[in-house]
């Protein structure tokens, strides 16, 4: 048999329905409106959820669990900013060895149980040299030049079309509302393009220079697979990046995972309060 160099795990629509049924049962009548996926070191938003119920990923059929540092590996369901949310405390990354289809599985489950929107946060390196570490960026578009793609394989027509449009991945109203929340809080907030790399190695300085020429403002190892899947099935999306560090080669120092988690922890209180206020306003 000819071996394909890309490993494609075919999660069928029936697998998804099975996972969605299990999640629905664990939610016990609670119907989330918004899925929230939290980035490295940013998981503390889970502490703000009212009347939380906790669902470890391993209780959901076909669901993978997070192995990355700073990612707990459970859903938290409850109320936040007056909205019914399903929060992922711990996301899945392709660099952990999961297929892109596994990474986006929870997005599809959330959609199947009725969530119409998704908020994604992440930590990323600043490619734009006008940016500073510790600042926030609203993602207004993405660049993905690698093969990692959750939609490769037979299209699941029940979720969305074979060739989905990606002209407006991020919801214009959501961007506007989040921006005003940040500005009112005195935050220096950027809007920019997120360049997706699978990782897990950080980029080389030459790659960062190339990304800058291509129009990228930040670089990270997450978010884009989830956004592709969420747009495919018609969800409205807000994406927010914490610029945890200046990207490789900008400062004369090596990058480290610890630095990223620390930056996430330092910013998480601020970012979480903006997300909560955003939820109140939409
Ligand atoms: N590169 C890629 N991913 C990241 C970075 C970075 O500099 N910082 C946080 N996540």
First and last CA, distance:
52 Å
Largest sheet: 5 strands, mixed, barrel
The distinct ligands, each listed once, are: hypoxanthine
Instruction: Please give the count of helices.
Output: 7
User: What would you report as the Rg, rounded to the nearest angstrom?
Assistant: 18 Å
What would your notes on this structure say?
The protein has helices at residues 13-27, 100-103, 105-112, 172-184, 205-214, 224-232, 257-281; strands at residues 34-37, 50-56, 74-80, 83-89, 117-126, 136-144, 189-196, 218-220, 236-246. With 282 residues, the chain is an alpha/beta fold. It starts with 12 loop residues before the first helix and ends with a helix. The model is unreliable at 1-5 (pLDDT under 50). The structure holds hypoxanthine. The site of hypoxanthine (HPA) has 14 residues, from strand 5, strand 8 and strand 9.
């Amino acid at each position: 048999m000819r071996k394909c160099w890309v490993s494609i795990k075919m999660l069928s629509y029936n697998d998804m329905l099975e996972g969605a049924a299990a999640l629905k049962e664990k939610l016990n009548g609670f119907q989330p409106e918004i899925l929230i996926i939290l980035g490295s070191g940013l998981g503390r938003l889970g502490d703000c959820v009212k009347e939380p119920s906790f669902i470890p990923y391993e209780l959901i059929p076909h669901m993978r669990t997070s192995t990355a540092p700073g990612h707990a590996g459970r859903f938290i369901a409850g109320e936040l900013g007056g909205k019914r949310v399903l929060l992922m405390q711990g996301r899945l990354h392709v660099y952990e060895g999961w297929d892109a289809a596994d990474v986006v599985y929870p997005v599809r489950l959330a959609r199947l149980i009725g969530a119409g929107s998704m908020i994604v946060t992440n930590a990323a390196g600043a490619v734009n040299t006008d940016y500073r570490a510790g600042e926030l960026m609203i993602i207004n578009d993405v660049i993905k030049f690698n093969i990692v793609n959750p939609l490769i394989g037979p299209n699941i027509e029940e979720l969305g079309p074979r060739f989905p449009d990606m002209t407006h991945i991020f919801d214009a109203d959501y961007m506007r509302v989040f921006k005003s929340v940040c500005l009112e809080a005195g935050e220096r907030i950027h809007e920019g393009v997120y360049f997706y790399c699978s990782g897990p190695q950080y980029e080389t300085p030459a790659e960062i220079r190339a990304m800058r020429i291509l129009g990228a403002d930040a670089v990270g190892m997450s978010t884009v697979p989830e956004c592709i899947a969420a747009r495919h099935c018609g969800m409205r999306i807000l994406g927010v990046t914490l610029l945890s560090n200046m990207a490789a080669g900008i400062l004369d120092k090596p990058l480290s995972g610890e630095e990223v988690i620390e930056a996430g922890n330092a910013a998480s209180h601020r970012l979480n309060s903006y997300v909560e206020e955003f939820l109140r306003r939409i």
